[in-house]
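Hey Z.,

So I finally got round to the S-adenosyl-L-homocysteine thing we talked about over coffee. Here's the setup:
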Amino acid sequence: MTKTDLLNLDRGAMEAFFTRQGEKAFRASQLLKWIHQQGVTDYGAMTNLGKDLRARLAADTTIGLPEILHAQHSSDGTRKWLLRLADGNSVETVFIPEEERGTLCISSQVGCSLNCSFCSTSRQGYNRNLSTGEIIAQLWIANRELAAFGPNPRVVTNVVLMGMGEPLLNFENVAGALRLMMEDHAYGLSKRRITLSTAGVVPGIDRLREVCDVSLAVSLHAPEDELRDRLVPLNRKYPIRELMAACRRYVDGQPRRKITFEYVMLDGVNDSPRHACRLLKLLERVPSKVNLIPFNGFANAPYRSSGAEAIDVFRDILIAGGIMTVTRKTRGDDIDAACGQLVGRFQDRTRRSVRLQAVARDLRP
Ligand code: SAH
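And the result:
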């Protein structure tokens, strides 16, 4: 019999697990607190559980934590962990400390199927979805490494699903992990402190609204379909009009909520004042803010980042049009931990880098 991995169980699943065992449902809260608040994985130390129950848990269940293959510490305080999963695959997780908060950037898939032309994860192709346990384990490990379990003050105050993968293409497992992040007996983060970033999976956006409406970030990157089709090929399936309509539905009836639009600044590709004006027009009817992301390079990257001046001009056009706009600071650059640089360890079986160079040639002005 395969053992149940307790990290995979959100509160509902944990209660069902205990009821099936003839135990009271409140055991779920006890277990969740031990594992996710105290960071305890040794059943022997779970002192409010009876001896018999502890023995049964030890026999029938596991707490499947990945192993840290490699840890890196940036000069700006950013930390990156390469985690080895049970099947030998690996994913990356990044912690970004700021004055008022600490943000953990976590992965939702091994690799990614979307093939965005400016993203290094796309080069590794798609391997598989992460389980709920593998997603929440990234938060667990960060808490342990940052000594943030138990009575210590919260160190990870915010979580962003902006690492490797497209979270809305791994909906069920991501939803389970989101519920654990928000669960009082686990991590107790409010939905405002959790941001899911999507390349624009329209049906997923609608489903998320029903299931757990955390903050939504959308990787837009272009204000016109023709260009967006090339940067984010998913656009061919869900074009900008449909994406914008889904964004409006997401915040409908919630006057204070906004969608964050991410826009990677690519020199000579999507960064002209004309693009900024088109973007303004597009965002007219969606409560929004914009994050401009200077392009982060990687080996054989087919683009260059826009210069600081072009980014400022672009930002000022948006601000003059009434859109709250910030340029995202690049963090962890010296350890390849910045946006779009997370790759895990992989073999380039698909010869994507060759294909990417061809894309780059097409896109050159
Ligand atoms: N699949 C999701 C989440 C992963 S990407 C999504 O597309 O939103 C997280 C963010 O990093 C996205 O906005 C993505 O477009 C951006 N990004 C990817 N590669 C980048 C790069 N090389 N430089 C800057 N930002 C990048």
